[in-house]
Request: fold
Amino acid sequence: MTVELRRSTRCSSAPKSVGSLSADGRSQQLETSESRPERSFGRARQPCTSSSIKGPMADGRTSTSTLLDPRVFDVASVFDTFGVGIYCLDREARFTYMNPAGQALLGWPAEELLGEYAHDLIHHSRPDGSPLPREECAFYQAVRRGATRRELDDIFWRRDGCALPVVYTLAPLHADGQHAGAIVMFADESERRRDAELLRISTAQQAALAELGLRALGAGALQDLLDHAGASVAKQLDVEFSEVLELVDEEHGVQLVAGVGWRTGTVGAAHVGLDSDSQAGFALACDQPVIVKDWRAETRFQAPPLLSEHEVVSGAVVVIHGRDRPWGTEPWGVVGAHTRLPRTFTAEDIAFLQAVANTLALAIERGEAEQDLRQRNTEMTELAEQVSRLADERRRVMADTLDAEDRTREQISQLLHDEVLQSLLSARQDLAAARAQQNRRATDGAVARASDAVVQAIAELRNAVAALHPVTLAQGGLAAAVRATAEIYARRGGFEVTLDIASDTGGVRDQLIVSLARELLRNAAEHAQASHVTVTLHRTADEVVVEVADDGRGMDPGRPEEALARGHVGLASIAMRVEACGGRCHLTTRPGEGTRVQLALPAEEASSPAARPTT
Reply:
């Protein structure tokens, strides 16, 4: 038996309070006219005096309510107020009722629906547009069998041919205990699905940006990062073409260095001009994203050959910024997306492109900074090597100079000893003989003065010879040579000298030690104004230490470094000679507190005392 749902017009008759259904099964009081004319909502049907509607409630459960009489409860007037779509079908799945919300969602007026098969009008095809036969349609079969069905992901086809994503619940209708049809409640899922799709796209884009960021922080090549960025743009924005253009110069414009969808050989070879007639040039000039909805209607600039040859219709590009300079930020290039069909790029699309551009900009800036750092490190390494070579050369020259100085001193000493000093000794003997042979009174005074002068000259020459090449060192060893040198400069400087020389300090560096001690004692004699000087020599496990300390006027702590930096003779000469043999020099001084110089020379095997001459 077919159930007819009726819409009634109000009469002037007094309302009557009657019992009626409620969703939870409890009774409630409704008002209805005692008599009202009936108007069919569809094709003429035999009125039911008693029927039941078994269908879905608000909480999803299925319950049964009884209509004792059409006058008791006007079902259609209630369904008309619902904000979701509701329609009823007979056993053959033909429309018998649809509320206004359902008509609005599907675009069908009720008069065109009623009596028509629902499958043929709103459920005839699958989501991909392929036909859906009735025998394969689960919706149709559920109506025919009187089954309940709930679907969260389906489509109803609108009158304009567009698919409407819906969620629906289908429940059977019964009349006098017999299956009479079905009632369907459905809601538009377009907005929810659109939000879900936007969320999916946003999540995928965020994941892609995260992966791009990790690659940017890695040690991979920049070209690999650019290639990945181009592939990511094409995939996430679902476009046929993506591009990364690098700014070359004004003559060559920008070069396509990475991208997806271009013909073989295009990436790495194609160039786009920088004039305002190109999209890339326009974007670089205004430093803003530039969107083209349809190149066929674009008037700001023309499509470059790169795009026109690939039949591009729509596109969007954003600027990739370079490093910050004192005069501003230099652009590095652009990143873009293009399609062969008209497309409106959304704010979310541009935000994704901008995020990709920003990530690339940071990676490029980091790469350039690292390149600069590597270049500076290389330059510093080369400079350090040059300094090392110069230091080695300096030490070699210093060693050669010291050797030459020692040889020269030895030659001069030998010359003075063998020639001049011997001549003076012979002259002294001649004067002595003459003094004995001549008239004692006439010649005694002159000869005596000449003899004294010769004796004084001999003493000075001996001191000079000892200073140039201490014969005492060869004859008496290190301690005797240092003692002799100290006595000479003590007389010259007018100070007392104390010697503390360990017996194990002698060795192959004896001549250098005597030379250093002589230089320090000479400085004390000429500059210190000291009353007492101490000379100490001792040996550690791997060093021979020479120390000369005085109680003179001292100097400002900064003057020794200044003297060494200026290369003054004295301390500078001492420091260079010590460093030339791998030693170290330490000076302590303060005005009014004297000066202490400590020299540490690498220890070498001491020469055997038996090997030294004793006479």
